[in-house]
Each structure stands twice: as structure tokens, then as C-alpha cells.
Task: inverse folding
């Protein structure tokens, strides 16, 4: 595999670099930024990114995207991470990263006209209504029903773990339209306005103390038939595309390399007696060396997926491998960081003496969810074992 950029790719990387250097507000740059405390600056930055057409790097130009190649998108994300500027997901959110591309592929012209421009303008937020209390890994077993009634579908059921449902105007919902066929064949995809009568959203706090996801209940919720996305009962196959798009967005090898670098610098600065701790515990040095190597491996796995996509190939178990490896690596890096930091490592964001402003303590708690969201590590292992290694199903 050739890791060098072509001269055009290098020129594009420099363009992104110079743009961030010149235009990105200083308070959004660096390792200690809390975006939620700088929403004003983030919106200002969003406008500047929009002026370059880079809010939706992957979308076709006809829908207002930048129409970037796979390699350009990768360079764009990588340079943003290297310069510690807000990641593209903070600019566009789930609507740009996952929902918009799904609507572009499967939506009607009317749906595209209605929903794509407000997503690009940052006027609407979306959530993804897949998981239910009894259906996560086995998503196709979901029970939320959508029953046709005249010009409407009537929806009853419950979703769970719905990220940002409390801030969203719309949900892309997967519901059962035919209970009498094999489970994968009776599902359909819908656009549901979150202010529809009968929709109730209840918060769920995660163990890192932040309110990201929710439970959403549907009680006789009526939506017009025009809100069906794609064909009735083909929802499963469309949702698989959404999950592919989601998994290819998860994971940031550059961020992991930077985390390791931050921890090493923390030790070298002897902050919280880092040097002393590493001298007393040779195992810690070895651990840091391993994390450093693993972050390089994560980068190689990501590059493999990107180079396959750039050649028009569709990564399959390779995307699962990088998701699995990177998300578990997040946990290992946070574990090592907390060992290096000793008792101080337990101090969280906002605490005066928290090392690295509590970032690693937050990652320690939050990274547990990394190995669940977008499909658990066990499911990714199954995919690698079956599709990658050709082993039989259990
Ligand atoms: C932070 C976060 C955000 C999320 N956001 C959303 C969202 O926006 N929208 C949404 O719809 N969902 C969301 N989810 C839900 C997520 O997709 C599910 O939690 C995930 O798919 C696992 O499903 P489950 O929780 O029902 O666990 P289960 O499927 O019940 O799994 C329980 C355990 O059994 C294991 N297991 C299950 N089946 C197998 C198997 N065949 N082989 C081996 N092991 C198996 C699993 O790996 C897991 O360890 C989010 C989850 C998290 C953590």
C-alpha cells in the first residue's frame, strides 16, 4: 500500500490546512476545547466552512455537498484532526454524516427538496430511530409497528438509545409494516417529525454524566404516506446502507495518536509526578509504548479502508475490523492515561486539578459506549470471523 499523497492530494491538504489556520476561531482550536461552551464560535466557523462548500464533504455537488472524493474526504478529516479544529461531525452532525446521504440515495425528489437544504443550512437536526429495548444487535426483530390507514401510517411502539432525539426536529425511523413475512422483509423506513402528536421523548443519562441519548415513545402517531422513504418493506436493506455509512464515519486514528502524544507529554512535563510514576513502574512505560504502536496500527487499518473505497471497492469486514480495533483502543488509551495520572486521573471535566482538563477521565467513561454504538464489538468480531476468515456461523 502506498501511503503518500499525490501532488493534487497534497495541494488539497495544504488548502485545508491554510483555511483552518486563517479562519478557524482560536477558541475552537487545541486539545482542551469544550465545544458546548463555544456554540457561538462554532456557528461562526460553520458559516465559514459553508462558504467553502465543505459542510457536507461527501455529498454530490447537485445536493449542495462538496462532491469530494473518498481520499479528499479522508484528507479533510485528517487535517482537521491534526490541527485540532472541530471535527466535521461537529459542523454537520448526524444529519450530514448519516441521514442526509441516506435520503439522497433512497428519498423521493420531494423529500430531497424539503429536507436536504435545511440540513445543509444547519436548520434541522435529525435522530436515528433503530434500536428498541428488545432489539439492538438483532435489529431486524424490532417491534415498532407502522400500519397504513388511508393517506397516513399510524405508528405505535418504542425506540431507545436515540442519540440527540431531544434536540431533533426529525427522526429517520425503522418500523415494521408487515408482521407476516420473515423479519428482514417486513420493515420500512419513515421520516417522522418529532413534534407529531403522540411522540414522547424521555432523557437517558450516560455514565459519563452527559445527556446524549433518549427513549422515544410512539402512541398512535400519524404521519402522511409521503413520509415513507423508498419502497415499503425494503427498509432493512436501506438501513444496512445507513449503518455502512455510519460505521465508515466512526473512529479517528489521528485523535488516538494525539491522545497518546498528550499522555507522553504529560509524563515528560512531570505533571502530577508523571516522570516519577513511570520510573517507579516500568510496566507503564511499556504500556505507553504499546499504545503508541497501536495508534499507528489504527491509522494503517483506516488507510486500508480508505484506499479500498478510493479504488471503488466496498469494504466489508475491513470496516468492521477498523471499528472494532479503534473503539477498543480508545478504552486502552484511557486506561493507560488514568494509570499514568494516578489518583488525579479520576478528576473529571471542570475540576480544578483534573489533568488534561479531565479529557481522559471523560474518555475512560464514555469509551465504553464506543464499543456498543453503531454495532457492538462482538458483532464486529462475528463479521470479521465469518466474512473475513470464512469461519462458520455459531
Ligand atoms: C452511545 C450510544 C449511542 C447510540 N445511539 C443510537 C441511536 O442514535 N439510534 C439507535 O437506534 N441506536 C443507538 N444506539 C444503540 C446501539 O446501536 C445498540 O445499543 C447496539 O446495537 C447493541 O444493542 P443492545 O444494546 O440491544 O444490546 P444487545 O444486542 O442486547 O447485546 C447485548 C450483548 O450481547 C452481545 N451479543 C448480541 N448478539 C450477539 C451475537 N450474535 N454474538 C455475540 N454476541 C452478541 C452484544 O455484543 C452485547 O454485548 C446507541 C448506543 C450507544 C451506546
Result:
Amino acid at each position: 500500500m502506498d501511503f503518500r499523497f499525490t501532488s493534487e492530494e497534497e495541494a488539497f491538504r495544504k488548502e485545508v490546512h491554510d483555511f483552518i489556520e486563517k479562519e478557524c476561531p482560536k477558541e475552537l482550536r487545541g486539545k482542551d476545547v469544550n465545544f458546548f461552551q463555544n456554540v457561538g464560535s462554532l456557528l461562526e466557523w460553520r458559516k465559514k466552512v459553508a462558504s467553502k462548500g465543505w459542510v457536507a464533504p461527501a455529498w454530490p455537488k447537485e445536493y449542495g455537498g462538496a462532491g469530494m472524493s473518498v481520499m479528499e474526504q479522508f484528507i479533510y478529516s485528517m487535517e482537521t484532526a491534526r490541527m485540532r479544529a472541530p471535527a466535521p461531525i461537529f459542523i454537520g452532525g448526524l444529519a450530514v454524516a448519516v441521514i442526509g446521504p441516506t435520503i439522497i440515495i433512497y428519498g423521493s425528489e420531494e423529500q430531497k427538496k424539503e429536507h436536504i437544504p435545511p440540513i445543509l443550512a444547519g436548520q434541522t437536526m435529525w435522530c436515528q430511530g433503530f434500536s428498541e429495548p428488545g432489539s439492538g444487535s438483532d435489529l431486524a426483530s424490532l417491534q415498532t409497528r407502522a400500519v397504513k390507514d388511508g393517506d397516513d401510517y399510524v405508528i405505535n411502539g418504542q425506540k431507545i438509545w436515540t442519540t440527540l432525539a431531544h434536540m431533533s426536529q426529525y427522526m429517520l425511523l425503522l418500523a415494521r409494516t408487515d408482521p407476516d413475512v420473515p423479519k428482514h422483509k417486513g420493515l420500512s423506513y419513515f421520516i417522522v417529525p418529532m413534534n407529531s402528536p403522540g411522540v414522547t421523548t424521555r432523557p437517558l443519562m450516560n455514565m459519563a454524566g452527559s445527556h446524549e441519548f433518549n427513549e422515544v415513545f410512539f402512541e398512535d402517531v400519524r404521519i402522511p404516506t409521503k413520509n415513507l422513504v423508498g419502497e415499503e418493506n425494503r427498509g432493512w436493506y436501506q438501513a444496512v446502507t445507513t449503518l455502512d455509512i455510519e460505521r465508515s464515519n466512526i473512529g479517528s486514528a489521528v485523535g488516538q495518536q494525539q491522545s497518546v502524544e498528550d499522555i507522553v507529554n504529560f509524563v515528560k512535563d512531570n505533571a502530577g509526578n508523571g516522570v516519577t510514576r513511570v520510573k517507579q513502574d516500568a510496566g507503564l512505560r511499556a504500556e505507553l509504548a504499546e499504545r503508541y504502536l497501536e495508534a499507528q496500527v489504527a491509522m494503517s487499518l483506516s488507510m486500508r479502508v480508505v484506499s479500498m473505497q478510493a479504488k471503488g471497492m466496498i469494504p466489508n469486514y475491513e470496516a468492521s475490523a477498523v471499528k472494532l480495533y479503534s473503539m477498543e483502543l480508545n478504552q486502552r488509551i484511557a486506561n493507560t492515561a488514568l494509570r499514568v495520572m494516578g489518583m488525579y486521573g479520576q478528576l473529571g471535566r471542570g475540576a480544578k486539578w483534573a489533568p488534561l482538563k479531565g479529557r481522559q477521565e471523560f474518555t475512560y467513561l464514555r469509551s465504553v459506549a464506543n464499543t456498543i454504538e453503531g454495532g457492538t464489538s462482538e458483532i464486529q468480531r462475528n463479521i470479521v470471523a465469518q466474512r473475513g476468515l470464512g469461519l462458520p456461523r455459531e
About this structure: The chain has a mean pLDDT of 90. The two ends are 34 Å apart (CA to CA). The chain has three domains: 7-120, 126-232, 250-388. The domain at 250-388 is CATH 1.20.140.10 (Butyryl-CoA Dehydrogenase, subunit A; domain 3).
